[in-house]
Amino acid sequence: MEDIKRILEETKIEEPTTNETVEPLIVATSHSAGHEMISAEDVKLYEGDRKFIKTNHRIAKMKKGYYLQLRAKSGLSKQGLDIMAGVIDADFKDYIRVGLCNNGNKMVAIKKGQPIAQAILQKYEHFDNATVAITGAFEHTGWGSTTKELEEIIAKNESQQIEDN
Q1: Binning pLDDT at 50, 70 and 90, where does residue 22 land?
Q2: pLDDT value at position 91?
Q3: What is the pTM of this model?
Q4: Could you tell me which of 19, 97, 150, 158 has the fewest CB atoms within 10 Å of its CB?
Q5: For the chain, which residues make up each domain, given as ranges?
């Protein structure tokens, strides 16, 4: 139990420093695994819609070897809403957005202040032989930013190999 308390103290999700009124980051019960991610806007999701919904939460600091995983709220899943990609790395510093997809057969209205996902702190490890590809300064903006950077590194390495042969 002490390890869990220490890890949570070393990992903080902050709320905005603006004048907006924001619900504090909470857990529903003392046994809840996920912290509630609260919508910062009113949104309507029609059948087949995919939208990234703003929250007023971002990572202030996260212990090395952990990431934040976004998981579905069962009540929204019951209405046909699914979470899209939901891995938030420790170096992501922007406000967290929750990707929702309406796979149901009716429009679902999300209200500002409504819980839309659960954020769960997860431990991870790298393979022993893994190479860190992006080692310099990097602006982690989310939504494919590391993929773009990796594609550039791979293309550069491939052209270097051709020149070496």
Answers
A1: very low
A2: 81
A3: 0.70
A4: 19
A5: 2-125, 128-165
